[in-house]
Amino acid sequence: MITKDMLIGEIININPEFVSILMECGMHCVGCPASIGETLEEACQVHGIDVEEVLNMLNMINNSTPSYETTIIENDIVKPE
């Protein structure tokens, strides 16, 4: 579950596709080094975005997509289906 206290960097590590979601919400500086150390709540405040709306969107996507972690089996990387 994504929370407003999580760092942007942590959220992106959970699912790299969240970068495009955050950018669509108006956070165009997601790639900025400073943003990686900001919490979601701080980033939303800076950009005048409702953190609860962003949280709902991220968690809805996070709960409906398979894990993006990869499994290494006999030196082959297999993405979950």
**From N to C, what is the helix and strand string?**
HHHHHEE
| Count of DSSP-assigned helices | 5
The major beta sheet can be summarized as: 2 strands, antiparallel
* Number of domain modules: 1
Mean model confidence by pLDDT = 80
Share of helical residues:
40-55%
Tell me the β content. Answer: 5-15%
- Gyration radius over CA: 14 Å
* Shape label: globular
Pick out the low-confidence regions.
67-81
Distance between the termini: 20 Å
Question: What's the quick description here?
Answer:
By secondary structure, the protein is mainly α.
Set out the fold topology.
Elements: H1 8-14, H2 18-24, H3 33-36, H4 40-47, H5 51-64, E1 71-73, E2 76-78
Antiparallel strand pairs: 1-2
List keywords for this structure.
81 residues; mainly alpha; two-stranded antiparallel ribbon; 7% strand
Descriptive account of the structure:
- The chain has 81 residues and is mainly alpha-helical.
- It has one domain (8-78).
- It is built from five helices and two strands; from the N terminus they run H-H-H-H-H-E-E.
- The protein has a two-stranded antiparallel sheet with strand order 1-2.
- Strand 1 (71-73) and strand 2 (76-78) form a beta hairpin.
- The longest helix has 14 residues, at 51-64.
- The protein is globular.
- The two termini are 20 Å apart.
